[in-house]
Each structure stands twice: as C-alpha cells, then as structure tokens.
Amino acid sequence: MDDYPRGSLDHNIPFLLTLGVSPPNSSSAHNPELSKTLQDQAIEVRSDLPTLDLPPAQALLHYIQERDASNLPCIAYEHQLRYWFRVKSAERSFLLPPRRARLPEGIEAPPGAVLHSPFSPLTPISPLYPDGLIDAQWILKHQELIPSVVLCFYNLVSDPTQSTLSDNQIKSDVNKLRNLIIQSGYKTRLAIVFLSDPVGDHTDYLQDRIEIIRRGCALDPKSVFLMPPNETHEDLARMAENMLITLYGASMEYYKELARHSRKKRGRGVAPPPTVPPTTGTSQTLSLAGWNVRYDFKSAILAEYRLEMENALRSYEQAYENLLSSELVELIPSWSPRWNEARLLADVIAIRSIRCLLWNAQNSAAVRRWQFHRERMADLVERLGRGTSNYGWEAWEARWAIVMANLMEKAGIPELDPAEMRLYLNPEKNIMGERLQPWEFLHHTGYWYRLASRHLYARRVRARAMPEDDRRPPGSSPASHIASRGFTYDTFMCPEPHEEFPLEHMTYQGVDHNGMIIDCLSRALHEFMQRDQARLAAELSLELARELGLRQEWAKIVELLRPIWQNMFFRKERWPALAEEVSWALRAAASKTGELGDVVTIDWELLDRATFVFRDEEGKAGQTTRAQLCLRSNAHAESAPIPFSRIEVRFNGSINTLVLKHQVEQDSKRQKHGNIVLCPVSLEDVTSSEKEPTTEDSTEDERGTELQGTTDLTLSPGQTLVFVLDIPLREQGEVTALSLIASLETESFDLHQSLKLRDMPNTTYIWYPTPSSRKRITRSVSPLSLRILPRPPKMEINGEIKEQYYTNEAITLDFDIYNAEDVEAPSKFDALLFCDEDEASLTAPAFTVEIVSGESKEESKRSSTSSSSGRESKVSSYLLGDIQPSGTATVRLQFPPIERPSRYELNLRVVYRLPTNPGTTIIQTAVYQLNVLNPFESNYELLPRVHPDQWPSFFDAEGIQPLSLPSQEDNDAVVSYKGLTQSWSLLTRYASFASEDLKVVDVDIKVLRQPSQKPNTPPPMTCLITRHGESLPEKGQLMEPHTIETTSFDIVAQKISLDDRGPAPLDLAMVIRWKRVSSSSETEEDDSEDTINTTTLPVPRFSLFGIEPRVLAHVNYLDTPDSHTPLILLRVIIENASNHFLTFGVSMDTSEEFAFSGPKLSAVSVLPVSRREVEYRILPTGLGPAAGGTEESRGEGIGESDKEKRGEKGYWIKPGLTVRDKYFQKVLRVIPASEGVKVDAKEGGFLVWVPTGDGAENDE
Known about the structure:
Blueprint lengths: L14 E5 L16 H6 L1 E4 L8 H12 L19 E5 L2 E4 L39 H10 L3 E8 L3 H25 L4 E8 L6 H15 L6 E4 L5 H34 L21 H18 L3 H15 L13 H23 L3 H22 L6 H21 L12 E2 L16 E2 L1 H20 L14 H8 L10 H4 L12 H18 L3 H17 L3 H13 L2 H4 L3 H18 L2 H12 E7 L3 E3 L3 E10 L8 E2 L2 E7 L4 E6 L8 E3 L2 E6 L2 E3 L19 E6 L2 E2 L4 E9 L4 E13 L4 E7 L9 E5 L2 E4 L8 E5 L5 E5 L5 E2 L4 E9 L5 E11 L12 E5 L7 E6 L1 E3 L2 E12 L4 E8 L6 E13 L2 E17 L2 E10 L35 E12 L5 E10 L13 E8 L8 E3 L4 E12 L8 E3 L1 E9 L2 H5 L9 E6 L3 E3 L5 E9 L8 E10 L5 E8 L4 E4 L3 E6 L3 E11 L14 E2 L1 H8 L4 E4 L2 E6 L4 E3 L1 E3 ...
Parallel strand pairs: 1-3, 1-5, 5-6, 6-7, 11-26, 15-19, 17-21, 28-37, 48-58
Antiparallel strand pairs: 2-4, 8-9, 10-12, 12-21, 13-20, 14-15, 14-22, 16-17, 18-19, 22-23, 22-26, 24-25, 27-29, 29-35, 30-34, 30-36, 31-32, 31-35, 33-34, 36-37, 38-39, 39-43, 40-42, 40-45, 41-43, 44-47, 45-46, 48-49, 49-53, 50-52, 50-56, 51-53, 54-59, 55-60, 56-57, 59-60
Helix pairs in contact: 4-5, 6-7, 7-8, 8-9, 9-10, 9-11, 11-12, 12-15, 15-16, 16-17, 16-19, 17-19, 19-20
C-alpha cells in the first residue's frame, strides 16, 4: 500500500498532542509537513512557560506514549480497548493550518466572496480547484495537523513565596492557549495536567490552587488533572489510565461534532460556490454529486475515528456508488488528471471498506468486496479508459492483490496464524447458506502474494512486448506518436512506457520487474512453507529460482532448491519434466558455487534412464514370459563407460527378485546395431544359501529365492543396453515391476541408486524385436504389469447332477476326479455350497464329503463335515491323496433333506502340485447348479356335512354321549369330549411338479398342535380324520409330471365342552410319502429298497363351529319302479348353536320342473343349542333339459364333479326354498351338505342333481 499517497490508507484514530514536556525521541515529536503557503498562513499556538524536565513528567509522558495505538492490528478484539490514541509530543508550541485560506496575490475577490479551507476545491490555492473531489491532504489534516485534544503539562511550585506568582503565570498561559485555539476556528479540546514538587504532601492545598486556576481559565472540571507527588508507579499508572479514559470521551465528542457538521452541509442539497469562479481549463466546478461523495467520504473517516465501523462502511459504500455513477466518473474524460484522481479515490474507498469488513470479522464479505472492485474497475477501464491489455492494468492488478495481503497483515487475523495451520477461513454465518466459490474464502497472505506475482509476470511480458517506438523518450519521438501513445497505455500509478522498459542504450534504468517478482514470490513461499503446503512451496521455489538465476544469485538458488531436490515428490507423483527442471536448475547453480557433490549426484540421476517392459499383457503359470530391461545413457561422448556391478529389479507378486551381475563375456551372443545392443540373459533360481546379501543391512528373511543372471553390465556413453529376459511364472495373480537398484562399486566409492518404475505420463514404451527395429507398446494396462493366469489343469471333475431335486429328500452326489497328468498328483478337494436365493432366512445346509475307493464305492475311507455360516457351507483342503496317472478318485457329497425350495451353486475345486514343478499350484474347478423344488403342490376345499348323531340336549347336559376320542397328547389318557359335533369333508387335489415320474406310497392328513395351546392340556377340540373312498395300491400310485390326483377325507370334530361353541381354528398338514421310480424298480416287482421320502404340505387354516345359525341341504335318492327318475328326499337341517330361542320361516315355491310334498310354508322354532329338520319329497316332472331342466353348470359344488366323474347322466333343478329368520327378517343361505347339491353361483340359491341314467343309486 506504499504506492498510494501518504496517509490515504492509514487507520484513523483520535489525535492526542502533549505540550510542555520534551519528547524522548524524534519519532514521537510533532513535526507537521505544511507547504510554504500554508506555513505563512498557519496559526502558532505557543506557551510562554518553560518545558518540564521533572522525572514525574517524563514518566507520565512515557506512559502515555506507550499507549499509542497507531501500530495495533486493525481488527476488533473480544475485549475492546477502553481508548485509542495516536500520541505526538511538542515542547511548547505547534502550528494549526489556517481555517480560511487567503487568496493568492494578483487575484481579487469579488464582492461578497467567502473564503474557504485551503484543502477545499473552492479555494484557488488548493490542488483540487475547481472540480477536484478530495485527496489525502484532508485526511492528513485531521490525523497530523489538528489534534482532537491538547494536553498541557504544568508544574505547581510548592514554595509558598512563589506559588501565587506561578499560579498567575499558569492562568495567563492557559488563557492564551485557549484564545489561540478559539481564534483558529477549530474545536480542539484543551486539557491541563498539574504536577507538583515531591516535597511533603499538600494534596488539599494543591486542590484549592487548581480550582482557582480552573475558574480563572473557565475550564471544564473534566479537563483538569492532578498527579500528586510521591506516588508509586502503580498509582501513577492508575491515575494516568483514568485520565486517558476521560480524554478519550472528550475526543469522541470532538469527532462527533465534526460529523454532525459534515452531515449538515450534505443536507443542504446545493453545491457551494467557489471563492473565485474559475477562468481557466474547462471552467467547471465540482457538481453536487461530487460534493455528496466528498461529504460521504468525510462522514466515513470521522466514523472510523469513533471506531463505528458499521457506520463507516455504509458511508463508504454510498460514496463509492455515487463516485462510479453515470453522473460523475463517466462524465470525466480519461485524458484528464481528474480521471486518475477518481480512480485513486475509488481504490481508497474500496480498501477502507475491506478494512471495515475485516475489522468486523466479515472475511468472505471482504473477499467479495475485493473481487467486486476488481471487476468494477476492469469494466470501467475497458469502457472509458485505455483497456486492460497493457502493462498499466497488470500493474494495478498486482498492486490490488498486494493491498489485500497488506490489509490482512495489518489486521493480524489470529485464525490465520501459521501455528493454526489453516489455509483459509470459513465464511461468516450470515452467508454460510449461500453457494460460495473457492476464491470467495479468505485465504492466507501467501495466496495473495502468489496472485500478485502472476500479474507481475504478465506486466513484464506486456512491457517487453511494446514496440521500440513507444519506448523512446518524449524528446526523440514525433508529437503525433506521443499523442497516440497517450491513448494506448494506462499509466495510472505506474511509469510512462519509456520509463517502464527503456531502450537498451538509455542511461537510466527501467522498472525492476525481476525484483518485484522475487519479493512477491519470497513472501508467498514463506507463507506456504509455514503451513506445510509442500507442492505449492516447491512450485514457487522453482519459479523463484528462475528469477534468481536472472540475477545470477547462485548461492540462494542452491539454498532454495537443495531441500526440494533431496525430498522431491515430483519423482513419486510422476512429474518427470518438473523433476528434470529442478535437477538442471540446481546443477547449474551448484556448478557456479563449487558444490561438486551436488553436481555429481545430479549428473548421475540425469545421465541414466531405465525402463522395464513385459512383452505380453498376460501369461500362464508354469510357463515363461519375455521381458526387456532397457538402460539408456545420456552422457557425453567423452565420458567414461559405467561398469555396473549389479542391477536388481523388484516385483510385487509371485515373481522373485531379478538380479543381473556383471561378468565380462568372451563369446557373447549380443546383437548390436548402432548404439542399441540386445543382450539375451539366462536366468536361474538361487536360494538364500547360494547367494550373498545385497547390502550389509540385509537379514536372512530378506534373502529368499531370487532369479539370477550374469552378463556384461558396462554402459557406454550414448548407448542403449536392452537385456532380453525369459522370466518363469509360478503362481497366478497380478505382477508389477516396482523398482530398480543399480549398483556401482569402485575403489574410491560405492554408489547405489534406487529408481521407482512407474507408469509416467507421456512415457513411450518401446519393444526391440531386433537391434535395428522397434515397436511401440500400446495397451490399456501398464507395460510394467503382467496378469498371470492359472496353469491349464489336466485334472478332470466329472459328475452327474439331475435337473431337479426335491424337498425332504436326502441328496447324494458322486464325482469322479480323473488325473490326466503324466505324473501322480497329490491333491486336495474343496467344496463350497452357496445359496443363490435373495431371501435372508435361507441358509446353506451342512454336508459331508467322503472319498470312496475305486473297487467298492460303498466302503468309505474317511469323511469330513462342512462348516456352515449363513449362506455358505464349505469343506476346505480335504485330502485326496496321490492320484496316479490316468487314475480316478471318487468323492461323495451327502446332503441332508432340505425342507424349503431353494437354488444352490456348488463349486468344486481340486488343488494339486506336480512333483516336477512343486512351486506352481494348479487348480481345476467345476460349478454345478443344485435346484431343490417342491415335488407336489396342492389345494384344498372344506365342505360341510351332516353328522348322523343327534345334538345333545341343552337341558340334559349329563346325558351327553362323548365320542371317546383318544387325546392327541403323548400319553394314553382318554379325554371325554361332550361338546357339539360337526362333520366335514376335506377335498384335496395334489399335482406333481416333478420333471420325472414319482410313485406316491401314501397320502394322509394330520392335525397340527395349536401354538396357543398350553403344554400338558387337552386341545379344546378333537378331530377324527378318515380317508374317504379307496386307499392307494399297496405298491403305490404312479404319478406322471403335471398330473393331478384327487382324494378326500372325512373329518368329525367335537368340542371338549358344550359351553364352548365359538369358532375354533383347525390347522392341518398334508403328508405325502413318495419315492423315485428308478430303472430297476420299473422292471422288478419289488422296489421296497428304494428310499421313501416324506413331503409335508401346509394346509390353510380352517375355522370350524360358530354360534351363528346355519342351514344345511342334504339329499337322498329313492328308487321308483314306474319312473326313470328317482324320488328325491331333500332334508333341510337348521342348526342353532347360540343361547337364544330362534324362529325361522321355511317356504317352498312351486315349480314346473318338479312336484314336491312337504310344508309349503311353515314356522320352525329351534331351541338353544339344538337343530331341527324339515323334509321334502321331490319328484321331477321331466326327463331332462327338454322337459325344463338344464345340464349347464350354474354353480359350484362337489356334486357336479363327483356325479359327472362317475359318468352319471342327469340335470340340475332349482328348488325355491327360502329360510328366513323371523326376528331379524334375514334370509339364511342354504349350504350344500351332501353330494348332489351345489350352490347356484349365477342366480343364488342351490341346485339339486336329478339322475336320469342307469347309474342312479341310493346313497344310504
């Protein structure tokens, strides 16, 4: 910020001037700079009393000057200081600038003219006259010329004979000072501090004398202070502190009064007229918009004096917008000096605004304000100025970045202290929710110095790009060219083109661009290094070394680059170009300074290059792959050959360390063409006992098996040695060449260099088929890597797995392991069963593995059980023993019955090693799918039936005859059940979903225990289940795939107590016992040896009983000798299981289809817990559909399927029977309860089957 005018960017704090004590040094002395004109018009304020040299006075002055806040950081503290002063000292006099400036000689004031301040654009002697805005002189006036408080020191004489005279002299002097300050027109406050001789303690007497002096001088009591004698240092400091606090309040009042005066003048809304109207130049005075800018700027400065940064920021922003508005700056021509003054004022306002934001810890807002002014100025200069494509704009950009760094340094932000290791500050809370760009965070000062260096680079480039005609001095160029040059280059705060970059023959020097760049880079490097930003620090160090090289400061370059070269991460992070540049820069500097050790080390790194290349992308274990190790020398032709003693290449993976040893070959097989030499090298395995350690620090663990070869390792200057290597591959996996160690052993020194073999960017890998030809390797993977595939196994795994296996079936699988190798193979067997289903509850079952001898597969030698963990079950490393060539080992896997349908993947693996190549592991794998399905699927239908026994009487509970059914508990006790009894028919249809024929041995239904039933208690309901119809054949029933079989079961259920008549759940399961149909069982009659499997199918829960009344329809057929149709006996059973007396209305409608006998309309009363029966005899009137019947299916029921399956002929009739609850007037649904009755699904009601053929039979 030194480029800006003095005082324009200073942090303004109240000005305190001490008078009457000699200043201890010149830096604290008050020496204002006034021009000759102002000095002649200045007012001298002088005290006639001598200066004080008393020790208390010197101590007090020293204490006040130590509290000078001029150099404190410009940032708000958590605990604010109680006062801020800029302290200066004068002996007994000081000058005040004139309040009203006199007109210069030769200028007559017009009548009624008003004189103004010499710093105002209204005064002819001001440099701002007549249309200037404001400059740094006004700021300096209040900061250095006009104090807010003048503190005068006086001594009270303790001698009674001289005290009166001394007090009168003090009164006269103080009154004189007061009158001079009042005559000057300024509002400076006057304060007096009295010191007394250290003789005795006369405090009360002194107070009386001070009060007389104060009244005689008409001073404010708060402006008079007494420093009693014989006070300790602590008491003196306390009293001085209180005095400064009081003076600070008076100072604040002084600046508030100035601010009110400035706001008052702005509020007038008119531009004041000048003392003398301008008669030269444009004859234009400052506009009202310019005066508003001036008043706003003054208000902001005065707010800074009061430390009201929020008010100051608002005034600055208002002044900034008015300054750059279309009413002011855009009306100023760019060739006018007022244009640069406006730009300077805009910079000053922006800088002061940023400082206010930093004061209030608005860090991101300060960065945004910096960026906003940068963009605003670029737009203004591009539109109205000379553009941004010249050295002047780059100079401003660099200065603007340095200004930000200087503001941060002046602020002293503690969060960005290097000890905090923070690179930037987080945004303040009020903008934290916004989406900020990375450059809108407040970074440390190194970022800004680095940014300034970039613009300084650009400034130098643009300056050197100027043509020679523009760089000539004005006296040697035509006037027309000078005029055009004035509109080409922006010279705001920077030299003219001929001074920026003069011609070579000129005697004067131009701008030191190199020095400015070095200064910025050095400052930035210091900040980045303090925060351990190694990459940026290395980048800046390299740039700084280039600039120092232009100055030939070689020692600084060595000191700068040596640490970077020693720990250079450019090598590790694959930046060979940068690593080479650092090496060359350090070598050049080291050779100039005589650092020969550095020169040799760097030369060794720069001279040799090494690459390693695999020819193929992949290889197979047990075979060899070809690779090339290329060493290239970049040494001068005069250099001596380098005889390497040892070259070592290390890999990660299954390839052992490759070692080439130096040995001069007599009869070499080398091929040479030009400087390229192809060297075939034979490799052999060397164990730890056959080789010596690589270094002295090697241990036994580090001396494993390695690949060794011998060849001539002498590398001549400019030569390329290509070693052709056939590397044996042992195990599968990924292999990468990691590093190369080249060793050179001489009589005077030993040198070992380690190089990381990495896939560098822009690196070309070359393969040399012959010395005269080369081929570029381009593939997706790095040529340093090789994928080793498993050795092709000749061991075979053969086994037959069926397409489907079924639940509840034990599975046995046999696999033959056939050895097709030429030698015996010690083998191990692994088996992994993995569940492919996504359902989390499914797990892989445990299984057993056993090896079966070749002669008898039934004889088991040894077995192993798998370990199951969730979805996997496996057996690892099961020993198969030595399998002879062309021999077979049979492995049997036995799986327990699996209860749920699932899908598994069976992975089998045989791992073996051949005695001829024990280092290579060979693996043969096989994958099988194991599908376990349900062999059967079924559906069920529960149909009501009429139990033949009478219901128990509700009034004779003791006479209830129990069914005496056995209990379903695990004991022999017989439980007496005396509740209601119901009959049901369970119709089951089961289908075969197998892919082959199965033989069903038995089908049964079992009752499941209720989950809610308590242990050792009888169930609330008992059931007797019997098979309805014929049983299955003794040898079972053959079921083909996708066929359906039907069977039914009769269920008789009884409650344990008559009191329990509520609904009761019935849980059943269908049990199907079946077996596979083997090839032997199809031809032989006895297949009893086949394993019988049991499949249990769940049956949906049924609900029996209930207290709601129900109506059952049951039919019997009676033969009639004179008719082809039987007489139908229709029984209507009404059941009432409730405790209520119910009455039902039963009606039968007449029909043309039949004649009936029975009650056409009757009322049936049913007692609680009882049932009543109504009979109808029905005689059909027709012989089939032609007589009014219908054969089409009009409903659902058991009758249709049974009758039609038996081949009976007949048709359906629909009786018009209605049963209605008399109380609720609700029609009850008639439920079919026998064969020959079904529900009419289309029209409602029920249908009765009428047989017409010979197949009519009596059901009873």
